[in-house]
Amino acid sequence: MYSQNTAVGKIIDAKTSKPISGVDIFINEKDKPALTTTSGNFTVQSDTVIYKLRFLRKNYSLETIDVTSENASNIFVKLAQEKVSSIQEVVIHNEKPKYKNKKENPAYAIMQKVWERKRNNGLDKFDTYTYKEYEKIQFDANNLDSAFMKRKIFNKLEFIFDYKDSTANGKLGLPVFLNEAVYENYGENRPSKRNKKLLVAQKTSGFQDNQIITLTAKNLYRDINIYDNTLNYFDIGFPSPVGETGFSTYDYNLTDTISIRGEEAFKIRYQPKRTEVLAFQGYLYIDTDSYAVLGATLKSTQKINVNFINGISTELEYDNPDENTFLPRKVITEIEMTPFSKKKTAKSIVAKRTVDYSEYQFNKPLEEKIFKRKEEEYEDNFVDKDDAYWVKARPDSLSKSEQGVYEMLDKLQQTPKFNRIVKLYETLASGYYHIGNAIDLGPIFSVYGKNEVEGDRIRIGARTYFTRNDPWRLQFYTAYGFKDHQVKYGAEARYMFNRVNRFTIGAGTRRDILQLGVQLTNDDGIMARTFASSTIFARGENASLSSLNQTNVFTSIEPWKNFQIRLDGTMQSIKSANPSGFNLMYYKNGDLRKTTNDSHFTLSLIARPGAKFSQTGLDRTEHGTLAPTIVLKYTRGVEGLFGSDFNYNKLQFLFYKPILIGSWGKLMLNFEAGKNFDTVPLALQNVIPGNQSYSLAQNTFAQLNYYEFVADTYTTLHLEHHFNGKILSFIPLIKKLKLREIAFIRGAYGTLSDASKAINVEGFKYSAPSEHIYYEYGFGIENIGFGNLRIFRVDFNWRGNYLDRPDISTFGVKAGFQVNF
């Protein structure tokens, strides 16, 4: 992490070999010394890449050292004494090339050739392909010192420091986690396009059962293509130095011609024009004949504005089999993480991922069975391999410190204090407290809530949890309101028969107070999140709560990867939980009724192309990706079934997708549409989601009251763009706060028939946004906090129209916590 932004070394007298102090050290071409040494050892740092150091001391000759990633942490300088009479005047110039325009820059001509001959991943060229992938992820605790090691938290854990190692800055590093994985990749481009990535071996240092920690490691990394205009790190867009838009972000300088694996290559140094932007610095190695990228180094600036991250460094190696394609050889990425401080001396975790690609084979016939998912591939022991396998599978043998990780973690697993620390982390990350290797208590963050009907509300829940890949699960909760003095409950059982197609059945029931109308495309699951207790602070009184008795049975299957078919059967009765403040009464055959009895079936088609999951059991944890969510639902109400009052048909559609917009940030797009084809009472109607709380609620309308708009037919669109500080970084002083800006606009359109109004006792109160598209707009500030802990967000919302309605709010402020990079 210190390579080429930090240089560390020692200076001695060439004749006596004694350390020398009082030496002026100049970085690159600068004419002012960055440091005057006080001992024979030195450490210099820079906001930009250090590619050269010059050492000057009275009565000694000037010495110049080229700095590379290989020698940056261990530079050895010998200064030769010089007679005073022979010393010439030393003038240090700033020799950084200056060009009137980019066309005068020789690096620009080279990059133009790269763009003209832009290469694609060679895997797309062949009819079929196979290759092997070895991945190693290691976490090291960094910047440790003797005072840190003597803290009470390490009582009875002192033995872990027997595995420590020295780092480049003279501090200590301690390996704490190691994960190795081997994948076999199969692909077919013609006649049909399909691929399969099979995990065939995995070895994790003591954390096989602690999936939260392993998932954290996997979630840090994304696959990147250096030829793309935007590189994805943490689902944040960084401009690529090889992208066609690179010259708008970076300065390029042709520094040398060198040999890379026997091929002549241009060495081009690049660095961002503005250090406040999300960008990299480093070197590009471009083949002098084919203008292919042979390799690249990417390193973040010291002012990187990413939460919990102090630095990123990536090294890329490519093979170029022909003039149109490239193949990845090796990718090494290091990420330095700290929870609080941005200082380089802060205690941190360095996460290093190395991926080696090998054994490429092309146009080899692949049997049909290769692409079929098999039951044994999902078994827990499928990836268990002995030591002999790993010795052969590794491209390079493990270092001494890496070998020590397995030994150390095996010892730690037998230490109660360590297991308590791990359990605390897993409890906070998952929201459940695991007891007895069988039961999870939680979610712990839903224990307390408050609303108008129940007053203070306490909720206690639990679920079975034996392993991360359980094929069955029982789950329940009970809640009590201190104002209505009523006990609520919910329970559900699920069982998965097959890990391949995930054929599952389940059933559950609940009796609870809910805030309906806060989701359009909702989940029929019994244990889905309820909004009854989510509004502790709100604008105005929320009396529109419903009392729900519901029983649900379902079955689901995934006939294709990331495509789910689900069928639900639901029987429910709904009535107002606060009849004096919220009326759900309706007319049925001339009779006035207060309870809506409903039985319906729902067929859901759910597609998540590109989504990645860790576990193979009933409940899976999803990796962070930019995968879209596509849902199509058909609901059929059946009158007379278990006393149901209505026949009706409903169709709904949802599309959600996060989209990287180059270096301008990330757009969150959410589109929904739906239609009730029959007349139903308010309890079964589509409600445009409002939000009367002061907290953030995704895909709701901040300035709408609950039940303000009701629609037979509706469409909604939410656009929320996160600029990642792109604009605020131009403002002096403000940019030092590292705040990030958000802009958003939301719209809804719908219609409500006269029959749907007439069926409700107070139907005259309800309408749809049919005259105009209802819209809201505003901006937000996120990344509020200090150091690396910036998890607070504030939104400022304006209501665009329908301003003549009573009891509305035209402007509002929402706030909340969001934990992301």
TrEMBL record:
Membrane spanning stretches: none
Annotated Pfam families: CarbopepD_reg_2, DUF5686
InterPro entries assigned: CarboxyPept-like_regulatory, DUF5686
Domain of life the protein comes from: Bacteria
Protein name per its UniProtKB record: Membrane protein
Organism of derivation: Chryseobacterium hagamense
